[in-house]
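Hi support team,

I submitted a single chain yesterday and got back a structure, but I'm not sure I'm reading the token output correctly. Could someone confirm the output below corresponds to the sequence I sent? I've pasted both exactly as they appear in my results page.

Thanks,
R.
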Amino acid sequence: MDNFEYLTVSYVLITGIGMSRLFISLGTIVEERAVLEDENKPKLHWMLTTWTLLLIAIISLSWHAFYKWNLAYESPTAQLSPFSTLSLTLLAGCFYILMELHSPEASEDGKVDMERHFLLIRPHLAFWLTASMISMIVVFLSFSHDVTGSYTEVYRSNTAAQLGLVTNLVWILIVTPLYFPANSVRDLAVVLTGFGMVVGMTLATPTYSMIEDDTDLDGVHNDSDMCDDSDTWFWEEVDSFGCTFSQYDVNSNGMIDDDHDGVYDRFDDCPNTDEGVTVNEGGCPSE
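Hi R., thanks for writing in. Yes, this is the structure output for that exact sequence:
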């Protein structure tokens, strides 16, 4: 197990413990509603329940995101920095606190009131969700420096990272109304927007992964793709090398190998080689 795998296992353990704590709390409520008399049953509150589901989805998606970073750290030039360790631990701590906040406790009379609990944690929920999104941004900046040597390289060059940054910022905006006094309409708008975000993130996750492995989304993995700009020719099918006929036909004359040397014009460094001459991979005479 390398350093990054060890770190992400620690992250999963911390957030996993918090998630277990949350499930135990919800399990207790379900049990009490099943065995207690009507007047003693805990009162369910859909806002708290919905935010709990949103939090579980967000953390699950974060686990998925770090899988791609593990592949990036396999490069010999990538070194896990102490700052990355600290920032990821901070993110795990923020998520753990969020799950503790979502776990309702019995009041002094021994009853659990989820609505009252949610009204009390509203501003704290907004604060710690904002803190977790900021921590996520810091984590990606630090990972970028470890892998590329630049804090902003990944955000400048990677579409999936850019979409992730926008998502983090949108979450910060979504929870802003929770800092203000409770308002049923406003809170409903917030939670519905958040639910829509999670649904969108879940549906988009396969695309995020595909962008990492197939930048031009032509169905050919980056390692085998010789034409990484095939998305501009999306109306044509690509071959096993990720290229279309138009990309090979650089002269637009209907031929993809003008000098008939066996090397397509797009990759031919010597496009006017005499016929019958033995050429290398670049289309130039072997000698």
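A quick pointer for reading it: Helices lie at 3-35, 46-72, 82-101, 114-148, 153-157, 159-174, 184-213, 245-248. Let us know if anything else looks off.

Best,
Support desk
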